[in-house]
Amino acid sequence: MTVVLTVLGTILLLWGILFLVWPRLVFAPVYYPNRDAFHLHPERFHGLERVRGGNVVLEGVVYEPESPRCTVFYFGGKEQDSVALVGKLSERFPAWRIIAFNYRGYGRSGGRPGERLLLEDAVALVAYARERFGPLMLMGYSLGSSVAAYAASRTSVTQLILVAPFYDVPSLARLRIPYLPAWMMRCRFETARYLGGVSAPVSIFASRDDEIVPIEQSHALKAKAPRLAVYKEYSGYNHAEILGSDRFIADVSKVC
């Protein structure tokens, strides 16, 4: 009996620790100070700023090509400074107008990240961008795929592009820690559920060699998209490589 109680006590202790640190497993705020492209081409990059709940200032940027072929709002991954990344994205997609804002706590944005706040911010920011720049496509990578899917389910967009997406956080977490109780998962980011409310065409790009999000997650998401327009699987790219891969760039460029 003593052994059983000890084991149960250890399990509960580990679960309690996981519950406390859970947000740190989902979010990893970063700031990349390298914004050289913005300074070298001030005619192309324009800073944006929005004040959200709690008087939190969110940092944003828009890349303006001479003749935009389309307008894309980008939502970054767990460890991305989305604003800084626009410099690189503009090199890969020079004819796209690209808009991005950093999540709370990321880059120069104030506040602290949290699921509800990120999702609410996304809806408001997309509505602001659509009013200022016209019809939008949303593109989300990894964590950003869930945020983009949520925003697309609640605002009018022309297309939704998901790159290295996951089904939801609980199913992804249980691949690493089986039998993880639901009450522990304070951030869920239920991408599959959000997709059910998306009326825009959906494109999904994933890699069979993704070491973070197994390809089966994309298979399951594919079945949840009411208007699946494009589904592409690649080999040879890990989770971090797919976004900058030549094959992905060539294929997603056809969407816009």
Model description:
It holds the Pfam family Abhydrolase_1. InterPro entries: AB_hydrolase_1 (IPR000073), AB_hydrolase_fold (IPR029058). Residues 92-198 form the AB hydrolase-1 domain. The chain is α/β, with parallel strands linked by helices. The chain has helices at 2-26, 36-40, 82-92, 115-133, 143-154, 169-176, 191-195, 215-222, 246-253, and strands at 45-52, 56-63, 70-75, 96-101, 137-141, 159-163, 202-207, 228-234. Strands 1-2-4-3-5-6-7-8 form an eight-stranded mixed β-sheet, with helices on both faces. Helix 5 links the parallel strand 5 (137-141) and strand 6 (159-163). The protein is globular, with a radius of gyration of 19 Å. The chain starts with a helix and ends with a helix.
What would a concise description of this structure say?
Residues 92-198 form the AB hydrolase-1 domain. It comes from Sulfurimonas diazotrophicus. This protein is an alpha/beta fold.
Q: How many discrete structural domains?
A: 1
Strand order of the largest sheet: 1-2-4-3-5-6-7-8
Under CATH, the homologous superfamily reads: Alpha/Beta hydrolase fold, catalytic domain
Taken from the alpha-carbon principal axes, the silhouette is globular
| Mean residue pLDDT | 89
What is the rounded Rg?
A: 19 Å
Order of helices and strands: HHEEEHEHEHEHHEHEH
**What kind of oligomer do you see?**
single chain
Number of beta-strand segments = 8
Q: Approximately how much helix is present in the residues?
A: 25-40%
* Helix/strand/pairing category: alpha/beta
Low-confidence parts lasting 5 or more residues at pLDDT below 50?
A: 3-22
* CATH level 1 name: Alpha Beta
Q: Which architecture per CATH?
A: 3-Layer(aba) Sandwich
Strand content: 15-25%
Q: Largest sheet, described in full?
A: 8 strands, mixed
- Under CATH, the topology can be stated as Rossmann fold
| Tally of alpha and pi helices | 9
Q: In whole angstroms, how far apart are the ends?
A: 64 Å
